[in-house]
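lol ok so funny story. i was supposed to be doing the assay writeup but got distracted and ended up predicting the structure for this chain instead. priorities right. anyway since i did it might as well share w the group, maybe its usefull for someone
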Amino acid sequence: TVNHCADWMIHSSPIPWIGETQSYRYLGVEVSPKRGILPSDPLKEILPLLRKISKAPLKPTQKVKMLITYGIPRVVYGADMSLVGTAVLRKVDREIRNAVKAWLHLSPSTADGLFYSSRVDGGLGLPRLEKQIAISQVKRWCRTIQAKDAKCKVLAPALLPKVEIAKRWKVATGVEAEGSLQASLATTDPAVIGKRWRVSEFERWCGLRCQGRGLATFARDPISNHWLGVPWGLHESDYILALQLRSSTVRTLTTLSRGRRMNTTCRACGRGWEGIIHVVSQCRAFKKNRMANHNNICRLLSIIGRALGWEVTREKRITCPLWGTAVPDLILTKNGRGLVVDVAVCYEAKPGTLRRRAEFKVNKYDKFSRPICNTLGLSGVKTFGFVMGARGKWHAGNAEVLNEMGLPRSRKKALAKLFTVRAIRGTTGILKVFKKLSRSAQSRPP
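and the output, tada:
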């Protein structure tokens, strides 16, 4: 009989014998002769992985990379094939978020947008199983229903798990299927299903009153957001502070007092409310730190200018009887031409903040063009504002300065990323000093 014979072989490998109540693990899922593919338990699988990664002697960014590269993929296939419910996947996502928050020292209230927005928009690009598995399942059934093979087309409707896929359709697309589910699967292009889910996460993040402030300026900006994937040039402490800065969760009194009534006067200077913008851009206690950040940007521009053959003059006083005195940060001269560049580092509170600041710089120094030409013996000058965001935003107008300096196209992107990292490190340096002052203020007796 079938059950009483020699083992069946495939290329000299025996096919295992199992009873009708048993199961066999094949391609990452448990298969039963009677019930087919058995539901997996991704929560039970992911928790030991998270504990092992947490205990590993790795840097926080390395733990996140290991989770994305090796940890999460181990549970995805089984959860996908066995049609694990959305509620279970939501719990798995919550455990993953909590682990990442612990590794990166982020506040428990950090918005989901930081984790699930794409890196080009300023997020960490973590997988969201609740969304991505549903998208994968709906896409697969779309391709099955639309298959060119005649036999597959006939069998697919009979095998379609309508109740489960109907639920996944709503998760994947955000809307109920119009008409019958089978008709929707037959007429929808699989390539468009779930295409915008990360964009939706980013838009939801931008819509938050506190944590979404100024985030729209980072949309679709691979230069300003490059450090999120590869933190080149940033220490782990700088990277963690930069994430807190990007998500507006730095532990200031304004952040800690959300939903409560408490004194928010700045502990560093005693004036103004202690918020991120005040600490980074206005607090008198950190004026020297802001000047150092500004001077680092000027110094880097000077080095680039000299390497390209420009003569660089720093902070030269230019006097005009009509307009008074001006002290631009840099005047670059070469072959009778001049470039006047004034640097600013601003907090990106709104999408137009950096553009308006650059325009202000141009309007301020453009009227000194003739006195500059007369003083330095130039035939003409061009005036620019070189503006960087305190959270790492690269102003598109800065590329025009590099073009006028004659920087090769092949080096522009790399230098733009370098300026971004320099600006972030300057801001995180201010936050480190602020944290020390805050701790000392708390330790002093009332």
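The longest strand covers residues 337-346. The two ends are 89 Å apart (CA to CA).
back to the writeup now i swear
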